């Protein structure tokens, strides 16, 4: 099983997972691994983030680039998350195929998704390999 996936290392629950997904967009895992712990130390749930100022959020996420877009997605996703039925992650603002596929795999144990992301594909392959070793 792949233990180096960012979403498994530093998150607690679906909201934090979606924060990680938004942070990963158009940047490297290495950068996210430096920013995500600082972010989650300050805001560990949607309600706390929604009470924050945009300038405060920007001060943390700026190293990832696309600062204004990222802040808009983080806030929009967090607003949606408060009323989300935990079914389809694509209904959350700023969450696309990668976020939806990773949610299905890690939170719903749905291994039948067809991801295009190389890390998710590798994870599923490793899961299948591990299952066949027992």
């Amino acid at each position: 099983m792949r233990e180096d996936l960012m979403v498994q290392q530093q998150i607690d629950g679906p909201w934090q997972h979606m924060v990680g997904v938004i942070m990963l967009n158009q940047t490297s895992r290495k950068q996210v691994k430096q920013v995500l712990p600082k972010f989650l130390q300050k805001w560990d749930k949607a309600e706390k983030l929604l009470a924050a100022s945009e300038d405060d959020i920007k001060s943390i996420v700026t190293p990832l680039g696309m600062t204004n877009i990222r802040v808009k997605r983080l806030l929009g996703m967090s607003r949606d998350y408060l009323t989300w039925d935990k079914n389809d992650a694509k209904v959350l603002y700023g969450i696309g195929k990668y976020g939806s596929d990773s949610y299905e795999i890690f939170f719903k144990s749905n291994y039948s998704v067809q991801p295009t992301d190389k890390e998710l594909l590798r994870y599923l392959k490793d899961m299948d390999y591990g299952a066949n070793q027992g």
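Residues 6-131 form a domain with the Endonuclease III; domain 1 fold (CATH 1.10.340.30). The mean pLDDT is 90.
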